[in-house]
Amino acid sequence: MTTLDDLPLRDELRGMTPYGAPQLDVAVRLNTNENSYPVPDAAVAEMEKSLSAVLRDLNRYPDRDAVALRTDLATYLGHGLTWKDVWAANGSNEIQQQLLQTFAGPGRTALGFTPSYSMHPLLAAGTGTAWVDGRRGEDFELTAEHAVAKVREHRPDLVFLCSPNNPTGTALPLDVVEAVAEAAEGMVIVDEAYAEFARKGTVFALSLLQRYPRLVVTRTMSKAFALAGGRVGYLAANAAVVDAVQLVRLPYHLSAMTQAVARAALAHTDALLSTVDAVKEQRDRIVATLRGWGLPVADSDANFVLFGAPRGDSKGVWQALLDRGVLIRDVGLAGWLRVTAGTPEETSAFLNALEELL
Ligand code: PMP
């Protein structure tokens, strides 16, 4: 049988495993930070109408620049942004890959602070970018002093920040983003995939874009907009950054169907975002309940919670929950597990199963 070892694989890809959480058919799936609520009927109806309008025209390529979608996204974000400051692609993963292709790549370096979103180093590897891990502190915190010291030490071409951070759930204070933007000579990417779930008072980096032309915020419709299957992510930055990304994007990368579905979803922003409050309520319920049981729990501004497994047995507890029909995520942090906040019923199923294991 032919294996990868028999193929002339790029050296830096040897021994790597592809990213991916198990996609198992269990009753309660709380492992990939999806929105548990289905797309509301009114939005589905509008998507169907928009799709039937584009299907007949599929003989033609889609709008390569996705101007209408980018205009809708800019309106959603506010902060005086226009479509020229916004770029969209197939998930924020593709956006981040394009940013690495544009501003990093062979001979260049990207810096991140783990534990953080595990796709960042994988995207770096895939684009031939050297990866430097600046690490977070004992309690997963990232201070401005530590982040700036790492930026000065490694002088990376691109820095990844993640706020709220996956898998810890906690947002970064804005002064950390600002300090990194001041210190960095290269691009600074703030991955804000979970921004809409933040607790009151949390501030995000959109307000900094005017001041820092090398700062980029990436967002997604996969989480708050319940559109993970639609594959739409986007960035907001100085218009010159958007121009630069055009040098690497594939022509017509975003299908006419994707653009139509995303625009229909954005036309129903209020209905879609109404699920966010329901999810936050369950997120807060998980945090309070687990803390009540004496388990360590990270503060969460996201739709998921990182918690210390009973007896520190993350592997055993993960399996025991799965045996009880509840799939959560072992993010590879010894002693810790991550659970997505779902519907009240899913959350109850998780809490009841975990309580049995205390
Ligand atoms: N950033 C973070 C921090 C994430 O957790 C995820 C999804 N797991 C993404 C980006 C990618 O999301 P998408 O490609 O669906 O936009």
Automatic annotation (TrEMBL):
Cofactor: pyridoxal 5'-phosphate
Keywords, comma-separated and alphabetical: Amino-acid biosynthesis, Aminotransferase, Histidine biosynthesis, Pyridoxal phosphate, Transferase
Residues annotated as signal peptide: none
Domain Aminotransferase class I/classII large: 28-354
Pathway noted in the entry: Amino-acid biosynthesis; L-histidine biosynthesis; L-histidine from 5-phospho-alpha-D-ribose 1-diphosphate: step 7/9
Transmembrane residue ranges: none
Main enzyme class: transferase
The EC number(s) this enzyme carries: 2.6.1.9
InterPro entries named among the record's database cross-references: Aminotrans_II_pyridoxalP_BS, Aminotransferase_I/II_large, HisP_aminotrans, PyrdxlP-dep_Trfase, PyrdxlP-dep_Trfase_major, PyrdxlP-dep_Trfase_small
Catalytic activity, as annotated: L-histidinol phosphate + 2-oxoglutarate = 3-(imidazol-4-yl)-2-oxopropyl phosphate + L-glutamate
N6-(pyridoxal phosphate)lysine, modified sites: K223
Self-association and partners: Homodimer.
Recorded family membership: Belongs to the class-II pyridoxal-phosphate-dependent aminotransferase family. Histidinol-phosphate aminotransferase subfamily.
Name of the protein described by the UniProt record: Histidinol-phosphate aminotransferase
Taxonomic placement: Bacteria, Bacillati, Actinomycetota, Actinomycetes, Micromonosporales
Gene symbol of the encoding locus: hisC
